[in-house]
Structure formats: C-alpha cells, structure tokens
C-alpha cells in the first residue's frame, strides 16, 4: 500500500510541475520562432525577436520605469517593513492586537491586486494626489512591505535573545545592540524579503494599471498595451526575459538564504 501511495504522490507531483511549467516553456519556445507570428511548434529558430524587443523604445523605457520604481519601493518599503515587524514581535501589545496588526500588514499578500488598485485609486484621488510617480511609489511600497514583514517576523521568532543579553552585559547600548547584533543576524531574512518584494513590484500589473497616467507606464502594462495592436513573438521574447530574471532572483534567494526562511516556521 505504501509503495502505491508513494508512486501516486510522485506522479501527482510530477503532473503538477508539468502543469505549472508547461506554459512558461511554451512561451520561451515561441520567443525563438523564426516566423512573423507566434506559433507552436515554431517554424524555425531565430533570436531576432529578442533584438526587436530590445530595440523597441516602448519596452526599454517602461522597463527602466519598472526598474526604478521597484528599486525605490524596495528602498522605502524595507525599513518600514522591518520597523513594523519589530513593533509586532516586540511591542508591548495584547496578543489579539498583535495578531490583528499582523493580519492587516500581511493582507496585501492575499487581497487581489485589482482590489488594492481600486482602493488606492479612490483613496489617493480623494486626497488630491494625482502625480503618477507618487501614486505608483506608494502603491508599490504597499506591495513590498508584506514580504519584508513576513521574513523579518520569521527571523525574530527564531532569534536567540541571549545574544542581545550578552551584548547588554558587556556594556553595549540599545542602539549598539540593534545595529551591531540584532540587525546583522536578521540581515539575510531582511534581504530575502526585500528581494521578493522587488520582484513582485517589478512584475506588478494589477495595481499599477489603476495608478499610471498617459505618460507613465510600467513594463507589464506596456506589454499589455502592445498586445492590443500587435501580435508577434517579441511579446514572448520580453516575457521570456522576465521569466529568466524572476527565476534567477528566486534561485539566488534559495541558494543564499533558503525559501524556508521566507515561508517561516
């Protein structure tokens, strides 16, 4: 019985991986199609659509916007997320309030992006904030923070308090303990959360679509706009490059820190 169950589990796992990875592999194969339209299987092998994508100013300009936006959002969201994690984990709060705050801060992880986008659009428009860059920055900070909070909370829960006690016994001030003991120990978890937040911010479309204006666009939205009037493999080429960048980032995080630290205990 155990042998059949093990075989069934392995088969199910393999089928799940195929189901998840097959669309990505298909996009990559289509991106090297030599023909003028996306076709599977491809008519021939060619990298010309990668060149066409890199030469398209709509893609390169929006990619730069997405890169800068993700970097700014990560730079702002990371310290805010770390501060929120410290407040939740070490604040003198009732357990019920602590749980409520954690649920609120982590809610962007489960709330649909379209809901967050509409809520931000209504709120920021009511407040008179019409600058697209400011709205996008605020929205993407909101996307980055939960990832930093989640990894920081997981690290704080497994943090050995004797390290801080030893530093305090040796005469270190609270500031020195924080900067020379606590934060260095938490650095891998903080970096992992920031890296995930950067990837999510760079790839976001559901929230950004409600916050842009006619002169500002991110790369995912530029892809969506291009597909309305064009149908060629350059879209697959851009998508393949995004897949490669995202996969590389995830592999780096897994290799250096391990995804279990992101998921928590």
UniProtKB/TrEMBL annotation:
Q: Mostly located where?
A: membrane
Cellular location of this protein?
Cell inner membrane; Cell membrane
Q: Which spans are transmembrane here?
A: 58-88, 100-126, 132-149, 189-212, 234-253
Q: Which UniProt keywords apply?
A: Cell inner membrane, Cell membrane, Membrane, Transmembrane, Transmembrane helix, Transport
Q: Which InterPro entries match?
A: MetI-like, MetI-like_sf
**GO biological process assignments:** transmembrane transport
Q: Does the keyword Cell inner membrane apply?
A: yes
Q: Where is the ABC transmembrane type-1 domain?
A: 63-253
Recorded GO CC terms: plasma membrane
Task: Read off the Pfam families from this record.
Answer: BPD_transp_1
* Membrane among keywords: yes
The record describes its membrane topology as: Multi-pass membrane protein
Entry superkingdom: Bacteria
Q: Which family does it belong to?
A: Belongs to the binding-protein-dependent transport system permease family.
Q: What is this protein called?
A: Putative spermidine/putrescine transport system permease protein
């Amino acid at each position: 019985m155990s042998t059949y169950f093990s075989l069934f589990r392995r088969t199910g796992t393999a089928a799940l991986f195929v189901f998840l990875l097959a669309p990505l592999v298909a996009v990559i194969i289509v991106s090297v199609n030599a023909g003028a339209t996306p076709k599977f299987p491809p008519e021939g092998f060619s990298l010309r659509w990668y060149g066409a994508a890199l030469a398209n100013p709509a893609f390169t300009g929006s990619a730069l916007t997405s890169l800068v936006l993700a970097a700014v959002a990560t730079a702002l969201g990371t310290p805010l997320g770390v501060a929120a994690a410290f407040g939740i984990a070490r604040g003198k709060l009732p357990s019920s309030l602590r749980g409520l705050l954690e649920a609120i801060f982590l809610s962007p992880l489960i709330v649909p992006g379209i809901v967050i986008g509409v809520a931000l659009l209504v709120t920021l428009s009511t407040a008179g904030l019409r600058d697209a860059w400011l709205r996008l920055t605020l929205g993407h900070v909101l996307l980055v923070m939960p990832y930093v909070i989640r990894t920081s909370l997981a690290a704080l829960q497994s943090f050995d308090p004797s390290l801080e006690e030893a530093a305090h016994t040796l005469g270190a001030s609270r500031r020195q303990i924080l900067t020379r003991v606590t934060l260095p120990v938490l650095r891998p978890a903080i970096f992992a959360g920031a890296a995930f937040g950067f990837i999510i911010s760079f790839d976001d479309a559901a929230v950004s679509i409600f916050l842009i204006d006619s002169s500002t666009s991110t790369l995912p939205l530029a892809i969506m706009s291009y597909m309305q009037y064009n149908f060629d493999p350059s879209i697959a080429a851009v998508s393949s490059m995004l897949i490669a960048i995202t996969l590389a980032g995830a592999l780096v995080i897994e290799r250096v820190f391990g995804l279990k630290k992101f998921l928590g205990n």
